[in-house]
Design brief:
By secondary structure, the chain is α/β, with parallel strands linked by helices. The protein has a single domain (2-199), classed as Rossmann fold (3-Layer(aba) Sandwich). 25% of the residues lie in helices and 30% in strands. Strands 2-1-3-4-13-12-11-8 form an eight-stranded mixed β-sheet, with helices on both faces. Strands 5-6-10 form a three-stranded mixed β-sheet, with no helix packed on it. Strand 1, helix 1 (12-21) and strand 2 form a beta-alpha-beta unit. The chain is globular. The relative contact order is 0.17.
């Protein structure tokens, strides 16, 4: 069973429907017991960094996430869910992230030729033999919606990147922690394959 963490800042239903489509039972929950007893846990997210962190802490879901990671349960952050795993974001400079991974979230540079937010399909360059991308070809297209992007401190955890005026660290993997800046649930057959790979880890 896949537990999708409900903290009032996620695109929950589309993620749940994607798992349903590939035949994997998924529930949206903020129940500590459900999360800690799930086979897989997903942290989706849309909106602002500060609001999301505050909601996680309000429901004490940050504690559940730390315990999931300690128990080595496969964990997937999606979009804002990726950003929250890191130390800080330029969007909310005074707000500390979950700090499960080292790095910062930065804003796309002001550039007249660069539309921000970055909305739409972009191709991935795959790195470091990421388990989410088994059976997926280099150059596969996925769907993004974001104004801030990850700059990971250690590039050995980066399993996919894309070029959008800058080098975007688009997916990471470290031990049982996985995350995608793009939306696999909105990325057609490639995204469904990524979610299927996650459920098989």
């Amino acid at each position: 069973m896949v537990a999708i963490i409900d903290y009032n800042a996620g695109n929950l239903k589309s993620v749940q429907k994607a798992f349903d489509y590939i035949g994997k039972k998924a529930i949206c929950t903020r129940d500590y017991h459900d999360i800690l007893n799930a086979d897989r846990v997903v942290l989706p997210g849309v909106g602002s960094f500060e609001y999301a962190i505050n909601e996680l802490r309000k429901y004490e879901l940050d504690k559940a996430i730390y315990e999931v990671c300690e128990k080595n349960i496969p964990f997937l952050g999606v979009c804002l869910g990726l950003q929250l795993l890191f130390e800080r974001s330029m969007e909310s400079p005074d707000v500390k992230g979950l700090s499960l991974l080292e790095g910062e979230i930065v804003r796309f540079p002001d550039d007249n030729n660069l539309k921000v937010p970055h909305i739409g399909w972009n191709s991935l360059e795959l790195h470091n033999d990421g388990r989410l991308f088994r059976g997926i070809d280099d150059g596969a297209f996925v769907y993004f919606v974001h104004s801030y992007y990850l700059r990971a401190r250690n590039e050995e955890i980066v399993t996919a990147s894309c070029d959008y005026g800058v080098n975007v660290h688009a997916s990471i993997e470290k031990d049982n922690i996985f995350a995608c800046q793009f939306h696999p649930e909105k990325s057609s057959t490639i995204g469904l394959k990524i979610l299927e790979n996650f459920t098989e880890i």
